[in-house]
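Our collaborator T.R. sent over the components below with a one-line note: 'Predict the complex.' Nothing else. No constraints on interfaces, no templates requested, no preferences about which chain binds where. So this is a plain run: every listed entity goes in together, and whatever single assembly comes back becomes the starting point for the next discussion.
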Amino acid sequence: MIGTLTPVLSANWGAPQSWKYDAYVKQGGYEGAKKALKMPPADVVGLVKDAGLRGRGGAGFPTGVKWSFVPQDNPNPKYLVVNGDESEPGTCKDMPLLLASPHTLVEGIVISAYAINCHLAFVYIRGEVLHVHRRVQQAVKEAYDKGWLGKDIQGSGYDLDIIVHAGAGAYICGEETALLDSLEGRRGQPRLRPPFPAVEGLYASPTVINNVESIATVPSILANGKEWFQSMGTEKSKGFTIYSLSGHVARPGQYEAPLGITLRKLLELAGGVRDGHELKYWTPGGSSTPMLTPEHLDVPLDYEGLAAAGSMMGTKALQIFDETTSVVRTTLRWVEFYKHESCGKCTPCREGTWWLVQLLRQFEAGTAPEGGVDKLLDVAGIVNGKSFCALAGGACACVTSAVKHFREEFELGYTTPAWEAFPYERSALFAMDSLGGRA
Amino acid sequence: MADQIVETIPVTIDGVEVRVPKGTLAIRAAEMAGIAIPRFCDHPLLDPVGACRQCMVEVPDAGNGRGFPMPQAACTLATAPGMQIKTQLTSEMAKAAQVGIQELILINHPLDCPICDKGGECPLQNQAYANGRTETRYEGAKRQYPKPLPLSAQIGLDRERCILCARCTRFAEQIAGDPLIALAERGAVQQVGLFADEPFNSYFSGNVVQLCPVGALTATSYRFTARPFDLVSTDTTCEGCAAGCSLRADHRHFEVRRRLAGANPEVNEEWNCDKGRFAFVSARGDDRLKTPLVRRDGELRPASWPEAVDAAVAGLRGAKKVGVITGGRLTVENAYGYAKFARVALGTNNIDFRTRPASAEEAGFLADQVAGKSFGQGVTYEGLEKAKQVVLVCFEPEDEAPIVFLRLRKAVRKKKLKVLAIAALRSYGCGKLNAELLQTAPGDEAAVVAGLKLDADSVVLVGERAASVPGLLSAVVKSCHKAGAKLAWIPRRAGDRGAVEAGCLPNLLPGGRPVAEASARVDVAAAWGVELPAEAGLDAEAMLACELDALVVGGANLDDFASAKAARRGVERAGFVVSLEQRASDVTELADVVFPVALIEDQSGTFLNWEHRPGRIGLVNPQATNKMTDLRVLAALADALGKPLGARQARQAAAELAELGVWGKPVGFAEAKAASGDGQGLRVASWRLLLDNGRSQDGEANLKQTARQAVAKLSPADAGALGLSCGDIAELSGPDGAAELPVAVADGLAEGVVVVPANSGGFALSALGVAHGGRLSVSKKGGK
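Returned assembly:
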């Protein structure tokens, strides 16, 4: 099936008022939950495990396996926390999903929470996206009204409450343990592991943390079966996912396709790189995933394929940059982001991103000293792999991959400002007319 | 309780196989193998955080045959059987990682070591030299902040120097339980922050200065006053309370500049309280006694030592009814001097160290339960940690023995210790112990004690205030005895426990020998070569209530007594008063002869802490201007009286006391009955706050600023009935007078009770003539 779009999560996005309960049910909504509530919880875990669903937040950990880590003999309550703190640069899959079909998530939560014997689930949504937050709240309210949440759901005897929580807008709170701290009302900083959240997570109780898309995928597996799910994707990366194309592409947006599709195919579907330009570099899954070049157009976009190409699946945020773009400038912007979002807890991330930004600014301004590229790589090297969580690794990945593919462009920074080599207005997407169409 | 057998696992560090207890962190395991891994945030007494990342090591095998591809932080890595760890000594990966982190830590750290308090004793400086690059590659801008930022009157923060290791914030939260500082902001501008309206007024705040691995936290009183390499350090024991903390006193030019907590795992671990750390300048004021004084023509005039000794002897010789009152500042050796002086030179058992509300019941309790025991026979700090339940009776550990508080808090956090507090109100300190309140009105504690469910794993800690509640100590002894529970008396002052042992009580001779026991008297009489009076003497209050012919006072303040007025009258009525004191006081001003005595820092000796653990007092200042200790003065007086004391120096007194040994036979204890608490007014619950008007804290204005505000706490019902609300001024009156305090309405306080500090702000309970358990009438100032 590779090569075609497979709208499942996005199938109902075009329906009138798709975010409403009635519209969702009309499309077959809550059928998966009905099935699940008739099954023993352990069978639901088994089904998701067998289907081969892997986490859609970036790391790709098998979802069902994660659920099975929850110690059911622990006397504390079990919690399900849905990570909707989508903040990775370039990533925009969960927000449109929640905006268009929040009930997909609610249904997914009902099934997943039931599977792990959880009676209180949390949805942690990035605070800036108020409209999404409201829409999820509305959907939760509707679900309560329709008997899909609260006491004795649909007569099954199962109780579940959902709390929708707005974060305060920190990238680090997408890191699952920082999210838990934030949810508990503390500053969002990653926690020491072990103990792992499955054993001691929220309020020191067993906790499963899943990405929005992972949970939203669960209802379709229940409704259609594991064979249906396994029929899509590749050997080790089953199913479908949302690829978000952005940047210098003719029709940016969400493309739901089986895992393992190539960028070449996705670009065809999206109308290619913007007119008159060609692909220079791209990220497979947000800025934390090492960048790739046109030579990687045929790499299968699944966990294994991207790993083999020296990158990562990440959030499947495909940022497309054409030949007008300065890779130095792109990298600087990304690292500025990481510097701004570093939580400050550990030295390498806090100080390293601070230093990297200052170095990259020299490259952008054309004032980097001779040999500065090696120092840049060296600093990235002393940061990478030493930090408390993965944030600093992401910051280093964009630097090292950019230098790997475009070293000469960084060396140009010894003499030439990036804005002279790559006039910035040429790569701007929306200001072409006002600039007289110079692009 | 037998120690559990510790399961050990084998791990290999730099090729050396060692066995370490299961669960040991890699950094500790390396220490056990004698390998030091550089670190900043790691501290064995704080929970691991893994923030600084300095302690990176290579782990080629995690014990499961697989290694970590990237270096790991040794401070958060739990060892596993068979784990291979390679430190900077054998691993290029580890070394490179450590050098890299060191460089990153330094990029934003100012190069102001030459003017930094920490320079010369700075872990960052030392480890940068040992493990860092020789030159920086950083050419960018460093973070800049205004400095110092006061966290409190005592502690200043330099955010530029801070490396954000979170030691101070973890200390505040985990150890002290005062999370008044916390990391705020994020990224490179993350910083130690505090509440807008609440400074870091923790009793333990000074520890963060010592704990800081850089010069980011400095003490206001010490900043820029000395360089570490110019200081001379002396190990000593704190004179602040009965906790018995080891201290390091640093002097320069023979003046103590700062005091640090000594490392003593069995007592204070690595902590002390702010009083112990900062209150050491009280004798530097104008009131330090420099020469003997003799009263001539109604006025105290400076006199030579021989002149003063002659004058004192003239007054003491021939006096029939004499007494000796000693306070809580005495070393064991000095206390022994007084105990012996009273018996040998004055021929009396009228001696008492209890310059505070006391009772005959308490004297009996001390004889039976406290005196004559050796260290290890009773409760210890370790015993507190191992107990399942600790009951606090008339004892507020945070105020009265702060290190006991810290140890209890540690056990509550780490070992699920249950603390019960018998009190009228769950105090702030007891709240931090998560203590269950067994609520009672002050004075009625005995009834609650009688109903306690105790067992062999229970410890009952009873404070000095118990003496003012009739029947309470009897009830405590009875309940503990019945259940096999352990009992410890924790007095407030450093010299109290030693005074009991030395025999500064009317009913006790040294070593816990009861005066009433003929065989006990024989021991002492033989050693001292004198006849000993067979009748028990008068206690301090009784001495002051009768007209003494002569009174010898050492280290007592009149406002420590239940009634300052009565105490003053007692001293005034005494025919002749000799005072041995460090500074002019309300006693010296009434005395006929005053002898200046040496400060604690100017002498050596011993304190016994509440555990009966001896703590050595080191001679800090070898160039003291006055080396005349209490003992030395007493020996001079005894010589002149023709009844030599025998011991003139501390070590002689210590040797005599050791040779006497302890009595070690049961003494028996006559139980006292509880008294009915009827009367008018509100019952008073009161104790001395750690930081208050105590004279040892004089001269340290910054410390005083961190003291808790003096307020009268009332229950909502009483406050309502009296028409008082928070912030109003209440007038409190007792038999001796009246005083004012601002009101705080305390939810959860028992009705009919007012909680006041004993001696804080403008308020002294003894001026009203009331003690804990007594009654005060409370009204609104200016009200009807």
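Summary for T.R.: Residues 175 and 190 of chain A are 7 Å apart (CA to CA).
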